[in-house]
Amino acid sequence: MLTTHPFDDDHLKEECGVFGIFGHPEAAAHVALGLHALQHRGQEAAGIVAYDGTHFHNHRGLGHVEDNFGSENVIRKLKGSMSVGHVRYSTTGETLLRNVQPLFAEMEFGGLALGHNGNLTNAAALRRQLVRRGCLFQSTTDTEVIIHLIAISLYSTVEDRLIDALRQVEGAYSLVALTRDSVIGVRDPLGIRPLVLGKMEKSWILASETCALDIIGAEFVRDVEPGEIVVLSADGIRSLKPFVKKPSRFCIFEYIYFARPDSVVEGTSVYEARKRIGSELARESRVEADVVVPVPDSGVPAAIGFAAVAKIPFELGIIRNHYVGRTFIQPTDSVRHTGVKMKHNANRAMLAGKRVILVDDSIVRGTTSRKIVEMVRQAGATEVHMRISSPPTTYSCYFGIDTPEREKLLAARYDLEGMAKLIGVDSLAFISIDGLYRAVGAAPGRNADQPQFCDACFTGDYPVIPTDFTVPSGDPKQLSLLNEEQT
After folding, report:
1. pLDDT tens digit sequence for 407-433
2. Residue 264, domain member (yes or no)
3. d(CA 228, CA 161)
């Protein structure tokens, strides 16, 4: 069967990616290219809906963008000058065709297609209310809750119905919607998930990241603001701000891992931010060593920054096999223990007889870290020190990232010494939460009374208390003290 790559289970999983375009004769083809650039955000499924002025056309499928939209025949059938698309990693709902987005429904005002990046934290409660009212759900994804709330709204215009629906939901969402006369983009009032606005000649574009604008030669215009609704239509662009303004809580993990390094998020180059994170990490956790080695690919920019500040040579001591996809035929249990070598192999010439600093972006369960450390030692490293470019992941995320239950998070179960022993390193250190904030431009560090980012996976400080979930107990101040002790 097809499955998410089991050797990636030591990283937090992607959320989703959205893309929309208005006013281009080959809209669907450009959406497909945009989704290809956003493939890193969701690799379980992809879908595109287009409108030609008379009919809506859609194609959705499990697998990668290329698998579903690599055929010219498929794109040719998606006629129209306006289109929206979605790449999916499931955080709610199973990996089934009926859950693949954009979801489509025929409304009183006509057709509506909707793609969603994020997670609604009161979707289950709303779903129960809607079912009692007689709503019939066709999927198990939380996005369909928004569809039904729009359908039962008593307002007349699409925009007003959408606003009415979104005032009833909580959590994180960046949306792209397609109607008979517009493409609409929305970002939740806290701005947890990203959404950008671009332009290409006379066409307007919405996308999760700027790298999706680059692939089609579009110009970045600006970030969609938290709580803003952007309507793209024949009349041009309209901006609506119907929600109560709140302090932004953008997901800080976008800088650490999720966004592509060539993207610019919230005005900051992701690549430069990751280098600065590595630099801060080196200042906080120096150790004598001969070589700095990234765990590819996500650890590379941080390792470059670390090596520059530590004045230790940077080397590619681990080589990644780029021909192993995220989905593949699952191997038998008898060979699963060798699976990490399908993606990574030690570069023995750079490791033998060396004191090695391994730089990675995060530790979730610790399973892959342990295998990589073992591989580096087998290649002849005399010492292995691990440095992590995020604080310890001690709490689950409820806002669109697929994190394990808290009891499966290594940092929630062990102290620093226990984690180091379990993964087999001579020393282990994480960047502090203040160091992370400084690296992404929030000097002098985290303001505990009003954080600038959503960092709940590190601190337990959730910007919204989820209705559908039991938030684990824990004192964020205790974690802050732990981070200070580690540095």
Report:
1. 889 999 999 999 999 999 999 999 999
2. no
3. 15
pLDDT digits (tens, 9 = 90+) for 60-90: 999 999 999 999 999 999 999 999 999 998 6
CATH label of the domain that carries residue 186: 3.60.20.10
Q: Is the pLDDT of residue 110 over 80?
A: yes
For the segment 20-31, the average pLDDT, to the nearest whole number, is 98
Q: Which of 177, 211, 246 is the last residue of a domain?
A: 246
457 is catalytic: no
d(CA 69, CA 180): 23
pLDDT of residue 54: 97
Domain ranges, residue 339: 273-439+471-486
State both tokens at 485: 């002790």
Averaged pLDDT of the chain: 90
Task: Give yes or no for residue 153 having a pLDDT over 70.
Answer: yes
The H-or-E segment that residue 284 falls in is helix 270-284
% of the chain residues with pLDDT over 70: 88
> How many domains, in total, are found in the chain?
2
242 shares its domain with 308: no
Q: Distance (Å, rounded) from C-alpha 51 to C-alpha 214? A: 24
On the question of pLDDT at 147 being above 50, the answer is yes
Same domain as 239, residue 282: no
String of DSSP letters for 184-241: EEEE-TT--S--EEEEETTEEEEESSTHHHHTTTPEEEEEPPTT-EEEEETTEEEEE-
> Are residues 223 and 284 located together in one domain of the fold?
no
Does residue 373 share a domain with residue 432? yes
SS3 388: strand
Tokens of 84: 């929206």
Q: Which of 211, 246, 281 is the last residue of a domain?
A: 246
